[in-house]
Structure prediction request, 306 residues.
Amino acid sequence: MRFVTFEKGGLPVPGAGFGDGRWVDLAAACGRLVAGPLKHLAGATTLAEMIGSLHAAPGAALDIIGQALQHGGDLVVPETSLRLVAPIPRPAKNVFCVGRNYLDHVAEGDRARGQATAPPEHPQFFTKPPTAVIGPGEAIARHAGTTEKLDYEVELAVIIGKAGCNIPADRAYEHIFGYTILNDITGRDLQRRHGQWFKGKGLDRSCPLGPSIIHSGSIGDPQSLNLSLSVNGEIRQSANTRDMIFDIRTIISVLSDGITLEPGDIIATGTPSGVGFAMDPPRFLQVGDRVEAMIAGIGRLSNPIA
Ligand code: MG
Prediction:
Protein backbone atom coordinates (compact mmCIF):
# COMPACT_ATOMS: atom_id res chain seq x y z
CA MET A 1 0.00 0.00 0.00
CA ARG A 2 1.09 3.51 -0.77
CA PHE A 3 -0.35 6.83 0.34
CA VAL A 4 -0.10 10.22 -1.35
CA THR A 5 -1.63 13.65 -1.50
CA PHE A 6 -2.66 14.90 -4.94
CA GLU A 7 -4.36 17.99 -6.31
CA LYS A 8 -7.97 17.70 -7.43
CA GLY A 9 -9.82 20.83 -8.48
CA GLY A 10 -7.00 22.89 -7.01
CA LEU A 11 -7.36 21.28 -3.56
CA PRO A 12 -5.10 18.69 -1.87
CA VAL A 13 -6.77 15.26 -1.67
CA PRO A 14 -5.58 12.19 0.29
CA GLY A 15 -4.95 9.25 -2.02
CA ALA A 16 -3.89 5.62 -1.86
CA GLY A 17 -2.98 2.82 -4.23
CA PHE A 18 -0.74 -0.13 -4.95
CA GLY A 19 1.86 1.66 -7.06
CA ASP A 20 0.35 0.70 -10.41
CA GLY A 21 -0.13 4.26 -11.68
CA ARG A 22 -3.67 4.69 -10.33
CA TRP A 23 -4.59 6.58 -7.17
CA VAL A 24 -7.81 6.23 -5.19
CA ASP A 25 -9.51 9.34 -3.79
CA LEU A 26 -9.36 7.95 -0.26
CA ALA A 27 -11.80 10.28 1.52
CA ALA A 28 -14.44 9.82 -1.20
CA ALA A 29 -13.94 6.04 -1.17
CA CYS A 30 -14.32 5.92 2.63
CA GLY A 31 -17.62 7.75 2.30
CA ARG A 32 -19.13 5.64 -0.46
CA LEU A 33 -17.75 2.12 -0.15
CA VAL A 34 -17.42 1.12 3.49
CA ALA A 35 -19.39 0.73 6.69
CA GLY A 36 -16.40 -0.43 8.74
CA PRO A 37 -13.78 1.20 10.96
CA LEU A 38 -12.77 3.81 8.37
CA LYS A 39 -16.25 5.18 7.63
CA HIS A 40 -15.56 8.25 9.75
CA LEU A 41 -12.76 9.26 7.37
CA ALA A 42 -15.32 10.26 4.74
CA GLY A 43 -14.71 13.89 3.97
CA ALA A 44 -11.30 14.01 5.65
CA THR A 45 -9.31 16.68 3.89
CA THR A 46 -5.75 15.69 4.75
CA LEU A 47 -3.80 12.44 4.78
CA ALA A 48 -2.27 13.46 8.11
CA GLU A 49 -5.67 13.35 9.87
CA MET A 50 -6.35 9.86 8.42
CA ILE A 51 -3.03 8.24 9.34
CA GLY A 52 -3.90 7.21 12.89
CA SER A 53 -7.04 5.38 11.74
CA LEU A 54 -5.36 3.83 8.69
CA HIS A 55 -2.55 2.61 10.94
CA ALA A 56 -5.01 1.01 13.36
CA ALA A 57 -6.95 -0.78 10.60
CA PRO A 58 -4.57 -1.70 7.77
CA GLY A 59 -6.83 -4.55 6.62
CA ALA A 60 -9.74 -2.14 6.17
CA ALA A 61 -7.48 0.26 4.27
CA LEU A 62 -6.43 -2.55 1.97
CA ASP A 63 -10.10 -3.46 1.36
CA ILE A 64 -11.11 0.10 0.54
CA ILE A 65 -8.31 0.59 -1.97
CA GLY A 66 -9.13 -2.74 -3.63
CA GLN A 67 -12.86 -1.98 -3.76
CA ALA A 68 -12.28 1.52 -5.12
CA LEU A 69 -9.96 0.30 -7.88
CA GLN A 70 -12.63 -2.24 -8.87
CA HIS A 71 -15.38 0.38 -8.68
CA GLY A 72 -13.40 2.84 -10.81
CA GLY A 73 -15.24 5.94 -11.97
CA ASP A 74 -14.44 9.19 -10.23
CA LEU A 75 -12.93 7.36 -7.25
CA VAL A 76 -9.82 6.49 -9.27
CA VAL A 77 -7.44 8.96 -10.91
CA PRO A 78 -4.60 7.94 -13.24
CA GLU A 79 -1.25 9.34 -12.09
CA THR A 80 -0.68 10.84 -15.54
CA SER A 81 -3.63 13.21 -15.05
CA LEU A 82 -2.83 14.53 -11.57
CA ARG A 83 -0.13 16.41 -9.71
CA LEU A 84 1.31 14.85 -6.57
CA VAL A 85 2.21 17.21 -3.74
CA ALA A 86 4.05 16.27 -0.54
CA PRO A 87 2.19 13.38 1.14
CA ILE A 88 1.96 15.56 4.27
CA PRO A 89 2.12 19.05 2.74
CA ARG A 90 1.82 20.93 6.03
CA PRO A 91 2.92 18.83 9.04
CA ALA A 92 1.28 19.74 12.35
CA LYS A 93 4.69 20.22 13.92
CA ASN A 94 8.30 20.53 12.86
CA VAL A 95 9.95 17.65 11.02
CA PHE A 96 12.25 15.79 13.45
CA CYS A 97 15.72 15.14 12.03
CA VAL A 98 18.83 13.25 13.12
CA GLY A 99 22.24 14.69 12.22
CA ARG A 100 25.56 12.83 11.80
CA ASN A 101 23.98 9.36 11.68
CA TYR A 102 26.27 7.63 9.14
CA LEU A 103 29.96 7.11 10.04
CA ASP A 104 31.26 7.94 6.54
CA HIS A 105 29.29 11.23 6.60
CA VAL A 106 30.76 12.11 10.01
CA ALA A 107 34.24 11.33 8.59
CA GLU A 108 33.79 13.44 5.44
CA GLY A 109 32.57 16.36 7.57
CA ASP A 110 35.69 16.09 9.71
CA ARG A 111 37.90 15.95 6.59
CA ALA A 112 36.23 19.01 5.07
CA ARG A 113 36.69 21.02 8.28
CA GLY A 114 40.21 19.71 8.98
CA GLN A 115 39.24 18.46 12.42
CA ALA A 116 38.63 15.16 14.13
CA THR A 117 35.48 14.52 16.12
CA ALA A 118 34.23 11.40 17.84
CA PRO A 119 31.10 9.79 16.42
CA PRO A 120 28.04 10.85 18.42
CA GLU A 121 27.29 8.79 21.53
CA HIS A 122 23.62 9.83 21.44
CA PRO A 123 21.40 10.80 18.49
CA GLN A 124 21.74 14.50 17.60
CA PHE A 125 18.29 15.94 16.95
CA PHE A 126 17.20 19.13 15.19
CA THR A 127 14.04 20.11 13.31
CA LYS A 128 12.84 21.69 10.07
CA PRO A 129 9.70 23.87 10.22
CA PRO A 130 6.47 22.98 8.33
CA THR A 131 7.11 25.92 5.96
CA ALA A 132 10.17 24.06 4.62
CA VAL A 133 8.13 21.16 3.20
CA ILE A 134 7.59 20.89 -0.56
CA GLY A 135 6.50 17.99 -2.76
CA PRO A 136 7.87 16.06 -5.74
CA GLY A 137 8.75 18.27 -8.70
CA GLU A 138 8.37 21.49 -6.71
CA ALA A 139 11.23 23.97 -6.78
CA ILE A 140 13.78 24.07 -3.97
CA ALA A 141 14.45 27.76 -3.19
CA ARG A 142 18.02 28.82 -3.97
CA HIS A 143 17.98 31.65 -1.35
CA ALA A 144 20.79 33.59 -3.07
CA GLY A 145 21.99 36.33 -0.73
CA THR A 146 20.93 34.29 2.31
CA THR A 147 23.21 31.31 1.67
CA GLU A 148 26.03 30.74 -0.80
CA LYS A 149 26.46 27.09 0.19
CA LEU A 150 23.18 25.30 -0.54
CA ASP A 151 23.59 21.52 -0.19
CA TYR A 152 21.56 18.29 -0.37
CA GLU A 153 21.11 15.23 1.89
CA VAL A 154 19.09 12.12 0.92
CA GLU A 155 17.37 10.54 3.94
CA LEU A 156 14.90 7.80 4.80
CA ALA A 157 11.93 9.43 6.56
CA VAL A 158 9.75 7.57 9.05
CA ILE A 159 6.06 8.46 9.38
CA ILE A 160 4.54 7.82 12.81
CA GLY A 161 1.17 6.01 12.86
CA LYS A 162 0.45 5.45 16.55
CA ALA A 163 0.99 7.98 19.32
CA GLY A 164 3.45 7.13 22.05
CA CYS A 165 5.75 8.50 24.72
CA ASN A 166 8.71 6.60 26.24
CA ILE A 167 8.48 3.98 23.48
CA PRO A 168 10.86 1.07 24.14
CA ALA A 169 13.11 0.19 21.20
CA ASP A 170 11.60 -3.27 20.84
CA ARG A 171 8.11 -1.74 20.39
CA ALA A 172 9.21 1.09 18.05
CA TYR A 173 8.11 -0.56 14.80
CA GLU A 174 4.53 -0.81 16.16
CA HIS A 175 4.38 2.99 15.96
CA ILE A 176 5.55 3.34 12.34
CA PHE A 177 2.89 3.90 9.68
CA GLY A 178 5.30 3.98 6.76
CA TYR A 179 8.34 5.45 5.05
CA THR A 180 9.11 8.07 2.45
CA ILE A 181 12.05 10.02 1.00
CA LEU A 182 13.25 13.35 2.40
CA ASN A 183 15.93 15.69 1.06
CA ASP A 184 17.41 17.71 3.95
CA ILE A 185 18.45 20.79 1.98
CA THR A 186 20.95 22.81 4.03
CA GLY A 187 22.63 26.21 3.90
CA ARG A 188 26.11 25.11 5.07
CA ASP A 189 27.36 28.64 5.79
CA LEU A 190 24.29 29.30 7.97
CA GLN A 191 24.68 25.92 9.68
CA ARG A 192 28.24 26.87 10.67
CA ARG A 193 27.62 30.54 11.44
CA HIS A 194 24.77 29.97 13.87
CA GLY A 195 26.23 26.95 15.69
CA GLN A 196 22.84 25.37 16.24
CA TRP A 197 21.61 23.74 12.99
CA PHE A 198 18.02 25.01 12.91
CA LYS A 199 18.73 28.21 10.97
CA GLY A 200 20.75 26.54 8.21
CA LYS A 201 18.29 23.67 7.84
CA GLY A 202 15.02 25.56 8.36
CA LEU A 203 14.86 27.68 5.20
CA ASP A 204 11.59 27.91 3.26
CA ARG A 205 11.23 25.20 0.58
CA SER A 206 14.23 23.25 1.90
CA CYS A 207 12.47 19.97 2.72
CA PRO A 208 11.36 18.02 -0.37
CA LEU A 209 9.21 15.08 0.82
CA GLY A 210 7.62 12.18 -1.07
CA PRO A 211 6.51 11.23 -3.61
CA SER A 212 4.52 8.60 -1.66
CA ILE A 213 4.47 7.01 1.79
CA ILE A 214 4.94 3.28 1.49
CA HIS A 215 3.10 1.38 4.22
CA SER A 216 5.35 -0.35 6.75
CA GLY A 217 3.76 -3.68 5.81
CA SER A 218 4.84 -3.28 2.18
CA ILE A 219 8.54 -2.54 2.50
CA GLY A 220 10.33 -5.47 4.19
CA ASP A 221 13.35 -4.51 6.30
CA PRO A 222 13.74 -0.71 6.47
CA GLN A 223 17.35 -1.19 7.65
CA SER A 224 18.48 -2.74 4.36
CA LEU A 225 17.41 -0.16 1.76
CA ASN A 226 19.75 1.30 -0.85
CA LEU A 227 19.53 5.08 -0.92
CA SER A 228 21.20 7.45 -3.38
CA LEU A 229 21.13 10.99 -4.69
CA SER A 230 22.10 12.54 -8.01
CA VAL A 231 22.64 16.12 -9.15
CA ASN A 232 21.95 16.64 -12.87
CA GLY A 233 22.20 12.86 -13.32
CA GLU A 234 25.59 12.50 -11.57
CA ILE A 235 25.41 10.13 -8.57
CA ARG A 236 26.76 11.91 -5.49
CA GLN A 237 25.48 9.75 -2.61
CA SER A 238 25.06 5.97 -2.57
CA ALA A 239 24.68 3.89 0.61
CA ASN A 240 22.42 1.56 2.54
CA THR A 241 20.22 2.24 5.57
CA ARG A 242 21.99 -0.59 7.42
CA ASP A 243 24.91 1.84 7.86
CA MET A 244 23.04 4.14 10.26
CA ILE A 245 24.89 4.70 13.56
CA PHE A 246 21.58 4.80 15.47
CA ASP A 247 18.98 2.52 13.91
CA ILE A 248 15.32 3.43 13.52
CA ARG A 249 14.29 1.61 16.71
CA THR A 250 16.88 3.53 18.74
CA ILE A 251 15.97 6.88 17.18
CA ILE A 252 12.27 6.43 18.03
CA SER A 253 13.02 5.20 21.52
CA VAL A 254 15.40 8.07 22.37
CA LEU A 255 13.30 10.78 20.67
CA SER A 256 10.10 9.64 22.40
CA ASP A 257 11.80 9.63 25.81
CA GLY A 258 9.74 12.40 27.39
CA ILE A 259 8.40 13.68 24.04
CA THR A 260 5.07 12.35 22.70
CA LEU A 261 5.18 11.27 19.06
CA GLU A 262 1.86 11.51 17.21
CA PRO A 263 0.35 10.13 13.99
CA GLY A 264 1.66 12.11 11.04
CA ASP A 265 4.92 13.08 12.74
CA ILE A 266 7.92 12.83 10.42
CA ILE A 267 11.42 11.71 11.44
CA ALA A 268 14.36 12.04 9.02
CA THR A 269 17.03 9.47 9.88
CA GLY A 270 20.24 11.12 8.64
CA THR A 271 22.30 11.15 5.47
CA PRO A 272 25.29 9.12 4.23
CA SER A 273 28.48 10.55 2.67
CA GLY A 274 28.73 12.36 -0.65
CA VAL A 275 27.34 15.77 0.27
CA GLY A 276 28.55 18.79 -1.71
CA PHE A 277 30.39 20.65 1.04
CA ALA A 278 32.73 17.70 1.63
CA MET A 279 33.75 17.38 -2.04
CA ASP A 280 37.18 18.67 -3.08
CA PRO A 281 36.58 21.34 -4.21
CA PRO A 282 33.12 21.76 -2.63
CA ARG A 283 30.19 21.82 -5.06
CA PHE A 284 27.01 23.58 -4.03
CA LEU A 285 23.57 23.70 -5.62
CA GLN A 286 22.81 26.39 -8.20
CA VAL A 287 19.71 27.62 -10.00
CA GLY A 288 18.89 25.20 -12.83
CA ASP A 289 20.28 22.12 -11.07
CA ARG A 290 18.01 19.10 -10.61
CA VAL A 291 18.38 16.93 -7.50
CA GLU A 292 17.00 13.39 -7.42
CA ALA A 293 16.84 11.44 -4.17
CA MET A 294 16.13 7.72 -4.53
CA ILE A 295 15.40 4.89 -2.10
CA ALA A 296 14.94 1.35 -3.42
CA GLY A 297 11.40 0.15 -2.91
CA ILE A 298 10.09 3.64 -2.17
CA GLY A 299 10.76 5.68 -5.29
CA ARG A 300 12.39 8.80 -6.64
CA LEU A 301 12.02 12.37 -5.36
CA SER A 302 13.08 14.87 -8.03
CA ASN A 303 13.27 18.64 -7.52
CA PRO A 304 14.78 21.54 -9.49
CA ILE A 305 16.59 24.47 -7.86
CA ALA A 306 14.92 27.80 -8.65
MG1 MG B 1 20.28 15.63 7.40
About this structure: Residues 97, 99, 153, 155, 184, 268, 270-271 surround magnesium ion (CB under 6 Å).
